[in-house]
Write a structure and sequence with these properties.
The structure holds 2 protein chains of 2 kinds.
Chain A (H helix, E strand, L loop, with lengths): L3 H16 L8 H18 L6 H17 L8 H10 L3 H18 L5 H14 L2 H4 L5 H4 L5 H6 L7 H6 L20 H30 L5 H6 L3 H15 L14 E2 L7 E6 L7 E5 L2 E5 L7 E4 L4 E7 L2 E8 L5 E5 L5
Parallel strand pairs in A: 2-8
Antiparallel strand pairs in A: 1-8, 2-5, 3-4, 3-6, 6-7
Chain B lengths: L1 H23 L7 E2 L6 H39 L4 H33 L8 H30 L3
The chains are: A alpha+beta, B mainly alpha.
Chain lengths: 339, 156
């Protein structure tokens, strides 16, 4: 009874401490720890050496994009929730890192890892399991074998060991390399070959999808060439464009110059919209009236890392509408395009 | 012993609220246009709000003194603070302290708003501490009155 106050300290103060971390399935500390583990494994397994600055940027980009992910952004929310949960684990992060590296190798462009993560969850939650399992370990991908895809698949030699590890994306091994794998049972070998071919098919399909929406903004003809489902691809491209509005610290993929404001907390950012320059133009953020455009030349203080839907109304009619997310302390001037 | 535990519990809840206020309570201000300077009307509003907060802080501090006086009187007459008054005393003290703290938080959040160039007197960032300040002051006043009444009329 003498130290009863310690008991009360534990009861009162600890819940306050925990309540800040219990909002998500994984705490930020745990996520960072998992990222660290995944990076260590990735560097060892893939013999990759990253500059410390770049590594920190990639980690920060992953964390920033991960915390913004919500199952509500995807059609198949349950699957998306499952994938988000998976990509918070060290295994999931490691898988993203492998895929991201392969994508960078094949496209010769270093895209933000956050975008790759988003694409993976999008494809994983909206497309068939076959495509999703492209990035899962080979043992899991095995369950998605289909005879049709095996028969129609162009034959691609794949290294068995890398396939087993789940590193099947884009690895071109010299012809005959599979012969080094010695199987006593020929049937087992045939099944194994089929499985790897299916994985290759899935990979090809995924790469096509990626190519489609990466090239979407550059050339609409690409869409027609790759996929007949134009509407779906348009939606996909819109989602990717939205994701691209998320800030990236990756200097190689940086497309817009960001300005940062001082004397403000990290949780705020500044949004500036200057057009249309008409006195009756009004701006709404998430449906809430903010002010007339002519009166907000200094911008609007908004929450950072928050997905805003803004619309500009002219005489009660919507002039334009778009979504935006700003980074901490970011000061961004955006153009609202008239649809 | 049971009453002591209750008193300890109250004290630690209040301590928890203090800690929460200063280390965890951090909502974001709502979206608002950024201003470069306040107009006369806004300056007047800000001044009035400040006066209101300062008034409540002063009243809470005065209440502290009043409660302390009655506690001291009781101590002088009996040689200790009687058990029957302890709960009122502790609650009145705690709520007065909370009222002062919420006033401080209210001003702190105003600084946050103004330093970001926005003026929103009804933003949730400041409306919550503002309302809690007056609420806790009134609760404190209630317990203080109860304490004084029981002390003066020596009721059970």
């Amino acid at each position: 009874m003498k130290h009863i106050h310690l008991f009360f300290i534990a009861i009162i103060i600890l819940p306050f401490s925990f309540c800040t971390f219990a909002q998500d399935d994984v705490s930020p500390i745990q996520l960072k720890e998992n990222i660290k583990i995944a990076f260590d494994n990735f560097k060892i397994k893939d013999s990759v050496s990253l500059e410390s600055d770049l590594e920190e940027e990639v980690k920060a980009n992953y964390v920033m994009n991960f915390v913004n992910l919500k199952p509500e952004y995807f059609n198949n929310k349950d699957k998306a929730r499952e994938l988000i949960q998976y990509y918070s684990t060290s295994d999931g992060i490691e898988e993203i890192l492998h895929g991201w590296k392969m994508q960078a190798d094949s496209l010769d462009v270093l895209l933000p890892i956050g975008n790759y993560l988003f694409q993976n969850i999008y494809l994983g939650s909206e497309k068939s399991d076959e495509i999703t399992r492209n990035n899962l370990p080979a043992s899991d991908a095995n369950t998605s074998d289909s005879p049709k895809s095996v028969e129609s698949a162009p034959r691609k030699p794949l290294d068995k060991t890398s396939a087993e590890k789940g590193h099947m994306i884009g690895k071109h091994i010299p012809q005959g390399a599979t012969q080094t794998v010695k199987h006593q049972d020929v049937n087992v070998q045939a099944m194994e070959t089929k499985r790897m071919e299916t994985v290759a098919d899935n990979h090809t399909a995924l790469e096509k999808e990626r190519a489609v929406f990466i090239n979407y903004d550059k050339n609409e003809r690409t869409i027609k060439k790759f996929s007949p489902k134009k509407m779906e691809i348009e939606r996909l491209a819109a989602v990717v464009r939205l994701q691209n509005t998320l800030p990236t610290t990756d200097t190689r993929s940086q497309q817009t110059v960001r300005m940062l404001t001082t004397n403000t907390k990290n949780k705020y950012a500044t949004l500036i919209i200057n057009e249309p320059d008409k006195p009756e133009a009004e701006i709404y953020l998430d449906g809430k009236f903010i002010d007339e455009l002519v009166k907000i030349k200094n911008g609007i203080l908004v929450r950072s890392k928050h997905l805003y839907e803004y619309e500009i109304k002219l005489e009660d009619a919507i002039y334009c509408k778009d979504t935006i997310t700003l980074a901490p302390k970011e000061k961004k001037t955006t153009m609202c395009k008239n649809d | 012993m049971k009453k002591d535990i209750v008193l300890y519990f109250i004290l630690f809840v209040v301590a928890g609220i203090f800690i929460y206020n200063h280390f965890f309570f951090d909502p974001s201000a709502g979206e608002s246009p950024i201003l470069t300077e306040l107009n006369d009307l806004q300056k007047e509003t800000l001044s009035t709000l400040n006066e209101m907060t300062k008034l409540l802080i002063s009243l809470s501090t005065a209440l502290f003194g009043l409660i302390g006086y009655f506690a001291l009187e009781n101590f002088k007459s009996v040689g200790k603070i009687e058990r029957k008054y302890r709960l009122d005393l502790v609650l009145a003290f705690c709520f007065a302290a909370l009222s002062i703290d919420f006033g401080y938080i209210f001003m702190e959040k105003w600084v946050e708003l103004l330093s970001n160039g926005i003026f929103e007197p009804y933003d949730r960032l400041i409306i919550l501490p503002q309302q809690l300040q007056i609420t806790t002051f009134l609760i404190s006043l209630l317990f203080a009155c109860r304490l004084i009444y029981r002390n003066l009329f020596k009721s059970e």
